[in-house]
C-alpha cells in the first residue's frame, strides 16, 4: 500500500521536489518486493536494485539543487519559462546553459535509473527472475513507467524543443531498445527474458 500511494503521489505531484520525495519512498518500499523470499540471489538482486535507486536519487537531488538555483522554482508549470528567462538574463554558479544541461542530465540519470534506461538497466534482469511474479509485473508495468514520467517532465517542461536534448533522448532510446532486445535473445530464463524485453520496450517509449 505504501508503494501504491507513493506511486500515485509521483503522478499527482505539481513540483519536482514533491515528485522526488514520492519517488524515493516508492524506490525504498519496492525494495521489499525483490528481497521478498530472502534467498541469497534475491538479497543480492535487491542490493543492486537499492544501489541503483540510491545513486539515482542522489543524482536527482543534486539536479534539483542546480535547477532551483538557476530558476528559483521547481513547479512543473513554471520551470520552463523560468529556465528560458535564466538563459537570457544569466545567473547561477555556472553559465546558465551549462547549469541547465547539468541539472537536466542529473535528473535524467535519476529518472532513467528507475526506468531501466541503458546503461542503468542492470537492476532489471537481476531483480525480475528472483522477485515473485506479481512483483515482477509491477516492477515492469508500473515502476519503470514512473521513471519515464520523470523523463517526460524534464523533456517537455524544462528542455522542450531543445534539439541537443532531443538527440540525446533519441540516442539513449535506440541504444536501450537494441540492448534489451539483444539481452532477451540470449536469455534462457523466461522471467529474465521478460525483464530484458521490458528494457527494450522502455527504449521504444523513449
The arrangement of helices and strands along the chain is HHHHHHHHH
From the N-terminal CA to the C-terminal CA, the straight-line distance is: 29 Å
Q: Please state the overall shape, judged from the principal axes of the Cα atoms.
A: globular
- How much strand? under 5%
Q: Helix count, per DSSP?
A: 9
The SS-based structural class is mainly alpha
The total strand number stands at 0
Description:
With 206 residues, the chain is an all-alpha fold. It has 9 helices and no strands. It has helices spanning 2-12, 16-34, 40-71, 79-89, 96-115, 123-130, 133-158, 163-185, 190-205. Helix 2 runs antiparallel to helix 7 and helix 3 packs antiparallel against helix 5 (96-115). The longest helix is centred in the first third of the chain and has 32 residues, at 40-71.
What's the gist of this structure?
The protein has helices at residues 2-12, 16-34, 40-71, 79-89, 96-115, 123-130, 133-158, 163-185, 190-205.
